[in-house]
Design a protein that fits this description.
The chain is α/β, with parallel strands linked by helices and 225 residues long. It is built from nine helices and eight strands.
Length: 225
Amino acid sequence: MLDYDVNANIREVMRLMPPAVKLVAVSKYHPSEYLQAAYDEGQRIFGESQVQELQRKVGEMPGDIQWHFIGHLQTNKVKYIAPYISMIEAVDSLKLMAEIQKQAAKHSRVIDILLELHIAEEATKYGLTLDACRKLLEDGQWREMKNVRICGLMTMASFTDDESQIRREFTTASDFFDEVKAKYFPDADHFRERSWGMSDDYPIAIECRSTMVRIGTKIFGPRVY
Ligand SMILES: *Cc1c(COP(=O)(O)O)cnc(C)c1O
């Protein structure tokens, strides 16, 4: 028995998930037994944020899992995950994108990525401001990166109880998605993902057109760091 009823939790989350929204089960800091319980309920997309931990779990878990890297990824660590990673969700610099291109090419793969936006009020170092994101796309170097596929945008809302603020931030991301889609990806079907929503705010995120929610605590319980 697990300390936490992962099976029941994920069934409940899945039951309420609109069919068009992908569920990323955020399993960071949880043991593989927990992931296996979610897997047994049919979950196939898992999100991790530490390279070493991810490497270990890839070895322990079934081969048909799609692993998403959701944390801040250091450039020098891309090479470890390049052979198998399904999506890198938090890309926030051209430098990181160029390294993903290099490593993906080495493995003759195309790696899907999302551009991470910094919209929340929190003073984090990570994520592109809307202007920085516009600049990166306008610059156009990404067009030469044939082994990197930009599939959409990712963001986190502020850590607050103020629902209207959360809604405002997700709406900003959603409007920005439309702008970027129209300007740079009008004919690219793969540019379609809006990754926002975590355990505490995913119902709001879905109302704000999220296509991909990243849920950890609600499925696996509190993390022990
Ligand atoms: C940890 C994490 C999550 C999951 O957070 P919960 O509140 O546990 O659902 C989602 N997204 C990112 C980027 C994370 O680092």
